[in-house]
Amino acid sequence: MAGNEKNLVMAIVLSAIILLAWSFFFTIPQQRARQDQEAAQQTTTAQQAPGDQAREGAGTDVPLPEGAVPSGVAAGGTVDRATVVSANRRIDLETPQLSGSINLTGGRIDDLTLLEFRETVDPTSPNVTLFSPAESQNPYFAEFGWVDDQGAAYGGGDTVWAAPENAVLTPGRPVTMTWENDAGLRLERVYDLDADFMFTITQRLQNTGSAPITVFPFGRVTRVNTPDTLGFYILHEGPIGILDGTLTEVDYDDLQDDGPVAQDTVGGWIGVTDKYWLAALVPDQTAPMKTRFTYNQRGGFDRYQADYLGEGITVQPGAKAEVTNRLFAGAKKVDVLKRYRDDLGIERFEMAIDFGWFFFLTKPFLDALTWIAGWVGNFGVAILMLTVVVKLFFFPLANKSYKSMSRMKALQPQMTELREKFSEDRQKMQQELMGLYKREKVNPVAGCLPMVVQIPVFFALYKVLFVSIEMRHAPFFGWITDLSSADPTTIFNLFGLLPFTPPSLLSLGAWPLIMGISMFLQQKLNPAPADPMQAKIFMMMPIIFTVMLANFPAGLVIYWAWNNTLSMAQQYVIMRRMGVAIGGGKT
């Protein structure tokens, strides 16, 4: 093999290894491009008092007040969540997906539990908690209201709303809250909720005073304390939105270091995302909005906020104003997000799921897996079936490559003879090898094509398994109870026969070993590299990949092992048809 060709093969192999190790084990923080000049100017305002940055609206500077917690309450607390919830007057809410309540103080949506999802695969483990009140240990909530051109807020913060006794918010049964003051303002807020995760909040303001008033609708999602994140480069967790048609993702640490991020937009949405959960404000999709991500500290607690401020509305005496906005609070199910995108016109709402660089593969893969799993009833089986479909799609390319590899395998005795004959003259050996390839019409690099093609498919499927909630806690067979988690067994306790649990560093489960063995056997079908050092590196690859994939999602390891098995079968059939022996040479 010529020097350039050897370098190409080495580059492909080493690049794959480096990409995998770099992306998944060193968890390099995602580096963001510096903000443009406008964003840099906005950053300088971060030195102002929190919540006092001016927000322009209809030509008037309008400060959007913090209003994150009631007066006299710390930004974060140590009180048990259940105790806080029971201490406030609330409106209960119940849907097939959600359970919780709305706080009559501020009308905040601050108590939400996801009924379909649990913390672990154990069916007795607690349900996932999404929102928690301001006084609890990890406050996380959403609220809406009005602010006038002097910065005074109405409807949020400490506002105590009135509501019907024993009212319960359920799909198809909205609840109305009311509040009025002595200055001639009467507020009405209607909460509606569908069977999934979308709240619709209609705010009405009536001016019963003698002077006109200009008000601006606002909404915000507030999160106190920096949540535990996986820290993976390939996954975004934190402030997110589609603003002015562009996906905007801001890391928690970037918001701390660089200051607020502001953007004018028409349509779109803004919020905070976790790996599987999302809290997103969805303003009127036809009205101009000013959006913002902010960070500050109160009482030693980190506080993050995603908010929007609508255009000013002047309400004359005796007149009314009304706005309708929405809040998504729940699981990032792709079919649900797409339905909201289509039915409600929410721009690119499915992009709340981090599909990654290979989104053109990731999104179709997820759709295909979801459809197949709905048919066969098992996501693991769906992965196996999708792998077959992918193999069929790439069959012509792989077939051509395997034929080239089989020809190389047939030439193995002659290549060995040339290496021995010209062992003292490497240049002459390379010339003779190239002449042999030319006479036999063999391309020594063609065998690398299946691996090159497989890398983006590998990453795309990894993203599907890693970020899609459809894979969370999805079982396969036997000991695999969660395809999105690593194989729980390990060879170091004889796969559970010995009564101790080795440290995670020694996790080397059954499926990674199966994958490594399949990779080793597949290599035996391939022609050995001409260069001895290169051959040793290739022989080490099954061991390297086995160790690297030990902590990868089990579904991905199953895919890799099954893909290797299919490749071996295809390559074996081609070799037999071409009369090539497994060990090299002709049969």
Report on this model:
With 587 residues, this protein is of the alpha+beta class. It folds into two domains: 3-23 and 364-577, no CATH class; 59-228 and 236-353, Beta-galactosidase, Chain A, domain 5 (Distorted Sandwich). It is built from 14 helices and 22 strands. It has helices at 3-24, 37-44, 81-87, 252-258, 334-344, 359-376, 379-393, 395-410, 412-421, 426-440, 449-467, 510-525, 532-548, 554-577, and strands at residues 54-57, 60-63, 90-94, 98-103, 109-118, 127-131, 140-148, 153-154, 168-169, 175-180, 185-193, 198-207, 213-224, 238-243, 246-249, 261-266, 269-273, 277-282, 288-298, 301-310, 313-315, 320-331. Strands 10-11-12-22-18-17-14-15 form an eight-stranded antiparallel sheet, with no helix packed on it. Strands 7, 8, 13, 16, 19, 20 and 21 form a seven-stranded antiparallel sheet that branches. Strands 6-5-4-3-9 form a five-stranded mixed sheet, with no helix packed on it. A hairpin with a 2-residue loop joins strand 1 and strand 2. The protein is elongated, with a radius of gyration of 30 Å. Residues 1-12, 18-63 and 65-75 have low confidence and may be disordered.
Record the strand order, biggest sheet. Answer: 10-11-12-22-18-17-14-15
Based on secondary structure, the structural category is alpha+beta
CATH topology of the largest domain: Beta-galactosidase, Chain A, domain 5
- State the distance separating the first and last CA atoms: 24 Å
Number of domains: 2
Give the overall shape: elongated
CATH architecture of the largest domain: Distorted Sandwich
What is the helix fraction of residues, given as a range?
25-40%
How many beta-strand segments?
A: 22
Strand content: 25-35%
